[in-house]
Amino acid sequence: MTRPVASPDDPLAGQPSAQPADSSPAAQPASASPTRPPGPALDRQILSLAVPALGALVAEPLFVLVDSAMVGHLGATSLAGLSLASTVLTTVVGLFVFLAYATTATTARLFGAGDQHGGLRAGIDGCWLAALLGLGAAVVLAAGAPWVATAMGAGGDVAEAACDYLRASAPGIPGMLVVYAATGTLRGLLDTRTPFIVASAGAILNAGLNAVLLYGVGMGIAGSGLGTAISQSVMAAALMAPVIRAARRAGAGLLPGRRGLRASLGAGTPLLVRTLSLRVAILATVWSATALGEVPLAAHQVVSSVWNFAAFALDALAIAAQALVGTALGQEDAKRAESRGDGEAEQSDATSGTSTGSDSDHRSIHHIHGSASRGALDAVLHRCLVWGIAVGAVIGVGLAAVSPWLPCVFTSESAVGAAATPALIVAASAMPLAGAVYLFDGVLMGAGDGRYLARTGILTLVPYLPLAIIVAKGAPALTASTTPAIAGTGRLVWLWMAFAWVFMGMRALTTGLRARGSAWRR
């Protein structure tokens, strides 16, 4: 098992090639007391991983927030076009977020078992897979931008603005996918600080480039997309540098391996299905908002940008849980292998007439190992869940308090702000629920329980999609006004109630029940 990374420049600096399987800070408290969660010590480790992970997680939503704030002052048409384009772009990029999740789980488990070479080899293959998938996605999105805008129900100036943004931002997709894979590899090394530094620098670069290209050069909404693409490519190069150095130190090759690429794709396919189900829900939401009119659609962009930013902040705790769960399971793998080796040695000794201990002694040792592992997993699950709900509650209260003024950051049009405020309050009310959902997701991903997440991801769409269609086709407004913009505002509230409480509630139910069981602890 490797220690947390000492330097962002060299994830393996000062670390031996292999350490005892029980040397992890996460496992030590649990081993000492399998039945009592090590609260303060585990809290410190969770926060040491989660706080810097926050920077990497909010990179893409932060780009959208900056784009929304800058483009919003060009008018409602540009902001509505950005709403469509950014939803499509984050959907395309988000489909491949399994590159981060799969590499985190695989690398953490291998490093937990003491296999540094194998962990970094998996990370390198994941980065190559990310680059190849990103190139294909960029070409398809740039060529199909007009068709995508039409399929989303846009037309006229709104569709033109959406196409401009999609084509300008498409070259950044390979970089963003490499960011995912490299970030996942570093998380598996228990290094969340390097992605935080890179994401922070990338956000600053993105804001500066957008200001120059959008206002200085006068490229309009296309300048915002190009600035984001450049920032994502620079971030990818910065994150790959420490991964490459670590791979060289561990003796792992840098060229792609066919078997490794297949393994990365196979491990990520269930998570791709799970992510696809989430993106279907998001696309259905923006499709429904588009049917409500230009002003409600622009207001939806404000609310969804804030929601994504807050939700990714909550997911930082899930990343900590994912890395710690993967590490604990890797340690258990190493202990099982050691126990099998002890058993084979005992059998050999018995054959030669020598006894090294009774069967009951070995069963006791196995029981202690299993209890320690279960204790570590239970402690991570419990403490991360507490943190997720508590942080969600704090974010929700803060968001509700500033909801009357927050839309002014994104738009200077009073109609859009008035439409966004009540929907923001609905989103704020569901933040504690979102904290639990993201935590359960992180635990199951860290355990490699992708097939279950894929099945239940499809199941969560069953109650939500009909509600999104009902809103689009004429859900009752919350006001008696016949003015289309005002009526659309009321229906936007219904849409966010369906997404924030029905869809997220279904996710909490399915993942929460799984986390309470033992099937994922393998």
Secondary structure topology:
Layout: H1 27-32, H2 39-57, H3 59-72, H4 76-94, H5 98-112, H6 116-143, H7 145-151, H8 156-169, H9 173-188, H10 193-216, H11 221-250, H12 258-291, H13 294-351, H14 359-402, H15 414-429, H16 431-446, H17 450-459, H18 461-474, H19 484-516
The counted number of beta strands is: 0
Q: Report the C-alpha radius of gyration, rounded.
A: 24 Å
Enumerate how many helices there are, as a single number.
Answer: 19
Can you tell me the overall shape?
globular
In percent terms, what proportion of residues is strand? under 5%
Q: Which parts are unreliable, with pLDDT below 50 for 5 consecutive residues or more?
A: 1-37, 350-372, 480-485
Class inferred from helices and paired strands: mainly alpha
Write down the secondary-structure element order. HHHHHHHHHHHHHHHHHHH
Question: What is the typical, i.e. mean, pLDDT?
Answer: 78
Largest beta-sheet details? none
The termini sit apart by 18 Å
Helix percentage: over 70%
Quick take:
With 522 residues, the protein is mainly alpha-helical. The chain is 80% helix and 0% strand.
Entry keywords:
disordered N terminus, 522 residues, mainly alpha, single chain, globular
